[in-house]
Amino acid sequence: MNQGGSPRASVSVVIPYFNNAKTLPRALSGVAALVLPPSEVIIVDDFSDDCIDESGLPDLPCPLRIVRHSRNLGAPSARNTGIDLAEFAVVAFLDADDLWLPEKLQTQMCHFEHADGSARVFSASNCLLIGNGGVLIGDHNAEGPADGRSLADFLLCERGALQTSTLVVPRDVARAVRFRPGLRRHQDWDFVLRLEQAEIALRYVPSSLSWYDIGDRFGRISQKRGNIRASLEWFAICREEGLLTARQIQSGFVNYCLSRRSARMPWELCRAFLKVAVLDPAGMLSLVVRRAGSRSLQVGKAAVRRARLMRAGHGRGTETKSGKFPQ
């Protein structure tokens, strides 16, 4: 590896890795091209089936460390391992299938008042969404959170986004807050909401400083029942801990769980959602139509009927033989 003699940021880059052999060289090529390089890169292999071939990786201007879990623990735990191993004052997160642009660290490190990472701030930026074949889909959110607005409102009510590969966090703050182990979805949102809860201020960069590779997930991810269940699990945790209000959960459910293609919402998922937050059924239908579009009206009506039946104490017993619920 080429260690180089150019100035480096006091930054440890943490990359969780799980069977990302095809995309890891691209991610590291972005690190190698940074105008202001980091001081180290830590790859945490979360017990992958494939092995990382160091000979096929690009030269970096800083030391590279590769550690391997003895069993699969998930991306949040892999990031936490990297945080614990970090030797420098600030940690920057990079997923193995994403790509940083050259100005990434130079731009975001300017938002830290102290180079030693002692400031009670963290940084995030806009990013470009990249689909199959490297096709540019657009950016996430150039404006970022408005002053005085909570991150929960920005993410769930305003369809904003703060993606993991844009986050730069003081190491001591990251060690105190940590990623939530075992979380299947919304790992980045959960992390930034708890940063906000710990009174760590966001310094947002409206420029796109990374590529977020969503592959063929665009437009389809919310249709998978497993993803909806994972979202409901997270909503329940956040409601219990006070990270989200019922209104924010309702907006998040409509924006990120209900399909734009009007697939009927399964009964068990509707019931699980209602256990998370007791909501106004009419308000839910209004949000479905306003946020998800008229094609999701069928989904909204079904959910409203089921909600009213549950509130009336009928449970599932009033379902007809045809599987449809009465108006």
TrEMBL record:
Query: Source taxonomy lineage?
Result: Bacteria, Pseudomonadati, Pseudomonadota, Alphaproteobacteria, Rhodobacterales
Is Transferase included in the keywords of this UniProt record? yes
Q: Which domain of life is it from?
A: Bacteria
Annotated ranges, domain Glycosyltransferase 2-like = 12-114
Check the record and name the InterPro entries matching this protein.
Glyco_trans_2-like, Glycosyltransf_2, Nucleotide-diphossugar_trans
- GO molecular function: any one? transferase activity
Please identify the protein, giving its name as recorded: Glycosyl transferase family 2
Q: Which UniProt keywords apply?
A: Transferase
